[in-house]
Write a structure and sequence with these properties.
mainly beta; 17 strands
Length: 284
Amino acid sequence: MDGLYLKLKNIKSFSFKLFGGGDVKYDENYSADDLIFGGEVSGDFFSKKLHLALSYVIKLDGAYITKELAGFEAEYEIPNIIRFYNETQYNLINENISYNLIGFRYFRNPKWSLTMEYLYSLPVFETTSIYSVFAVDEYEEFYTELTYNFTDSIHTYFTYTREFYEEYSDANVYEIGIEKLRTNKFKGYAALTYRDDEDGGDLKGVKLFGSYFFHRYADVGAGIHYDIVERSLEDYDDTTSKRYWIVVTSYFTKKIYTDVKLERIESARYDYYDSAKFKLNIIF
C-alpha cells in the first residue's frame, strides 16, 4: 500500500488502526485507480489476559468493489501456563469464511512448549480477476510443534503437519531443526524436512539461514530453502519449492531502517523468477 497508516494505542483498554491509499500490485495490472482502505479496533480485558479485535478491509478498482473482508481475532492466556488463540476472516462478497486459524500453546515448563493448530483456507480472488469465476479448492491442515529450549537464545524443535487437499492426495510433513536467536552478532536456523504424499512421492528438503551483524549499515543474511514445498495463502495461490536469497538491513536510527532482498524462486506457477525488493521502515 502506498498511503497512510495511523495507530492509536492505550485509549482506556482499546487501540485503533486506520489505513488507506493506493493498492500496489507488482505486475502490469497496477493502476492508480486501485485503492485500499481499512481499520481495526482491539481491546485488552481482564488484566490483559483476554485480547479481542475486529477488522475490516475493502479494495476498490475505480467505482467497483474488488475485495471486501472482515476479520475477528481472539486470544486468551492463563499466565505462564497456556494460551488459546483464533483468527477468522470472512469474505463479505462471497459470504463465506475464507480463513480460520485456531490453536493453543502450552508453556508451563520454561524448557519446553507444545503448540497445536488447525488451519482452514479458501483463496480470495478480486472480482476483476479471471480466477474469480472458477471454483477454488479448500485447504486444511493440522499442525503440531514441540520445542525444547537449551538456552534463552537457542532452541530445537520438531513439527508434524497433516495437509488436506481436495484435488490432490493428502500429505504428511515432518521437520526437525535448531534455531539461534540474536543475542550478539549472529542469528540463524537449520532444519531438515521430509514430505510424504502419494502424488509427489517422498521429498527430502533442507532449510538454512544465517545473518551476521557486521555494522549498523550492514546486517547481512543469506538463506536457502531447497525442496521445501511452501504454499502461499495469497490470492494468486502459488506454491514454491526452492528459494535462494540474500538480505541486507541498514539501521540509520533506532526508528528508521531499510531492507534490501534479492531472491531466486522456483515455483509451481512459474519455472523460476528473480525478485528484488527494497523496503523503508519508519517506526512512529
